[in-house]
Each structure stands twice: as C-alpha cells, then as structure tokens.
C-alpha cells in the first residue's frame, strides 16, 4: 500500500378569500399506499395549521382593503359586522371545522371553495372597485392553480362569479370601479406584506423539500443497520475507482470480509446480538479506513472495502488492523464473544476488465481464506 495507510485513518376578495393565496405551496402530497391513518391525520392537521396562519394574515390585511371601500360608500353597519366576522372570526372557525372533521384535508378544500364564494360577495359589495377586486381575484386564482391546477381553478372561479353575480343582482347591480388614493393606500399593506409572507413560506418549504431529498438520497446509498454504504453504492464507488485506475495506473484494491460463523452467533445468542456484531464490525471498518476509502455492507454477513491507492500489501496491512481491533472488540449483550472475520482482497490488474470480474477475484480469495480455516487474510496480486 502506498503511504496513505499511515495517515489519519478516520480522515408555503374578499377579505375572506385573500388569505389562501399560497396554500398550494403547502398542500401535502397525496397519501402513499401503506401509510398509517394516524400519519395521514397528522399530516393533514399540519396542513390545516399552515393554511390557518396564511388565512389569518390574508383576511386581516384583506379586511383593510374592503373596509376602505365600505367607508368610501358609507356602507350600512351590517356590512361592517359581516366584514369583521369574515376577516377576523372566519379564519379560526374554518380551522376549527377542518380540525374536527374526520377528513381535515377534504374539509379544508371545502373551506377554500367558501373563500372563493366570499370573495365574489365582497367584490360585488365593493361595486367592483378595480384595485381591491383585481387583487382578490388574482390571489384566489393563484392558490387554486397551485393547489389543484386548472380544474380546481375553474370550480373556484365559477363559484366566485356566481356569488358575485347573485350578490350584485340583489344589490341592484351597482358599479363604481374607481379606486381613489384612500383605497390604494389601504391596499398597500396587503400588496407588500402578503407576497413577502408567501415568498418566505415558499422558501422555507423549498428548503425542507431539499433537506428531505438529501435524506432520501443518503438513504438510497446507505445500509439501514450499519450506516455504511450499501451494495449499490459500493459497486458505484468500485466502478469509479477502477476507471481511475485504468486512467492513471494507480493501484486500487477491493476487499471482501465475511463474519465467521455469524449464523452460529445468531442461533446461540439471538439475532439482536448478531446485529450488534455487524454494527461492531462496521465501526471497526470505519476506524481502520482513511477518509477516501469506502467501507460498505455487501450483504448479509459480508462487507466490502474499496481502497484507492492501495496494493495487495497495503490491503494486507488494513486486514491486519481490522482483525486486531475485532479481537479486542467487546459486545455488551454477549460477554466473552469473540468476533473473527475471513478476508479476501484483489488488486486491480490487466485481467480486471470490469467490477464484476474484480469482485469475483476478491470473492475467490475470501473463499480460500475460509477454506483454510477462517480468521485470516488472502490477497490476490494483479497478473503480470
């Protein structure tokens, strides 16, 4: 092995409807087959809580927009009462209804449709005042598109238009689209604060998704029991290192370890102790490998190591360290148990044309070590 082995070895309307504009970014994915009912319920309730925050913020700011138009038109006290209920009571009532439902997700979808109905009502009550009306329609359209695509948007807009038409007809079709400065100023907080809140929440959700993707990617490369690289990752690293060997001529060794008589350990002490042994072996492999070596679980009671810049002599030295540390390894639930391993290694040479050939050579060396009595190392030098 080159000098590397002696280095450090561990190396997210109405006033009623505006508040739901960003719910799409938070709508949870469709249930996965096999998920428990409790898990789905927890996820749906988390979704309801997120919508509650946005709806509370959006309806509070949206109520200010609608209030400016009601003041402009000297609206009757009843409209002010309805606006207060819609802007400051409905967000909490909607959340309560969803939380108490047997299907919070479906209940929240109904609430979102009701948001669209209330948005249509307030547009008619505002006599189609242009700025707040456009603001409400836009916000309501955004969340529906993101949440359920064009189909959900079509349903929501149909409800909004129907509610708006019926309300306007009941009021005598009043129309006053002008938005004076007082209305514009009342809309500014909504125009500024709500988009920022949506962007912040969206960024938080994007970061969460990125973290989850990294975790999934890591899980796809890692053995669940030992935390080492899994078989697929080991083969990917071996293929990469073999290609590097072909380019540079640097030596590289592949080592396969088999835990001696693991079945007997399982039969005598139980499978939990067998798992403890496998985890202990994994810990020793980490300790005996450099930062750029790759230890992994090949399968069952076998492990694999890819050792760059290492010849068969260096592999023998690694094997010696591994066997030495395993000899002194204590097991908490099996006092006196000694763990030994049989090790086979193959250095890449001309006859190693691909990873499969390389693995076969290391595996053959492993079986020679086992046939010779186990608890030993057998290495295969490259052919001349």
What can you tell me about this protein's structure?
The protein is an alpha+beta fold and 384 residues long. It folds into two domains: 15-219, no CATH class; 231-380, Reverse transcriptase/Diguanylate cyclase domain (Alpha-Beta Plaits), CATH 3.30.70. Helices cover 64% and strands 8% of the residues. The chain is built from eleven helices and five strands; from the N terminus they run H-H-H-H-H-H-H-E-H-H-E-E-H-E-H-E. It has helices spanning 15-18, 37-72, 77-100, 104-125, 130-171, 181-221, 231-248, 262-269, 271-288, 312-327, 355-371, and strands at 252-259, 294-299, 302-308, 341-347, 377-380. A five-stranded mixed β-sheet has the order 2-3-1-4-5, with helices on both faces. Strand 4 (341-347), helix 11 and strand 5 (377-380) form a beta-alpha-beta unit. Helix 8 (262-269) crosses helix 9. Residues 1-35 have low confidence and may be disordered.
């Amino acid at each position: 092995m080159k000098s590397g082995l002696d280095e450090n070895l561990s190396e997210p309307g109405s006033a009623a409807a505006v508040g739901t504009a960003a719910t799409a970014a938070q709508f949870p994915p469709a249930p996965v087959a096999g998920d428990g009912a409790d898990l789905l319920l927890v996820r749906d309730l988390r979704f309801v809580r997120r919508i509650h925050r946005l709806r509370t913020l959006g309806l509070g700011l949206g109520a200010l927009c609608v209030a400016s138009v009601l003041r402009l038109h000297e609206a009757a006290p009843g409209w002010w009462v309805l606006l207060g209920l819609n802007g400051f009571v409905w967000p909490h009532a909607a959340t309560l209804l969803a939380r108490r439902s047997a299907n919070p997700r479906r209940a929240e979808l109904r609430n979102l449709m009701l948001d669209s109905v209330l948005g249509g009502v307030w547009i008619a009550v505002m006599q189609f005042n242009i700025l707040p009306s456009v603001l409400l329609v836009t916000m309501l359209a955004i969340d529906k598109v993101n949440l359920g695509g064009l189909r959900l948007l079509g349903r929501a807009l149909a409800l909004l238009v129907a509610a708006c038409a019926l309300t306007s007809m009941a009021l005598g079709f009043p129309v006053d689209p002008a938005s004076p400065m007082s209305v514009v100023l009342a809309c500014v907080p909504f125009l500024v604060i709500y988009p920022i809140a949506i962007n912040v929440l969206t960024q938080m959700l994007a970061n969460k998704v990125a973290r989850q993707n990294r975790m999934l990617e890591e899980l796809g490369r890692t053995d669940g029991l030992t935390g080492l690289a899994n078989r697929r990752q080991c083969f990917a690293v071996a293929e990469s290192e073999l290609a590097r060997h072909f380019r540079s001529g640097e030596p590289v060794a592949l080592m396969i370890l088999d835990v001696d008589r693991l079945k007997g350990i399982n039969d005598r002490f139980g499978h939990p102790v067998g798992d403890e042994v496998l985890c202990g072996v994994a810990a020793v492999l980490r300790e005996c490998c450099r930062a750029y070596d790759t230890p992994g679980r090949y399968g069952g009671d076998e492990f694999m190591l890819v050792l760059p810049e290492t010849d068969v002599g260096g592999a023998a030295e690694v094997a010696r360290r591994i066997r030495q540390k395993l000899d002194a390894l204590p097991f908490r639930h099996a006092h006196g148990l000694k763990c030994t391993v049989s090790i086979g290694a193959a250095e890449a040479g001309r006859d190693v044309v691909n990873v499969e050939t390389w693995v076969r050579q290391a595996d053959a060396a492993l079986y020679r070590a086992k046939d010779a009595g186990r608890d030993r190392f057998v290495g295969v030098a490259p052919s001349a």
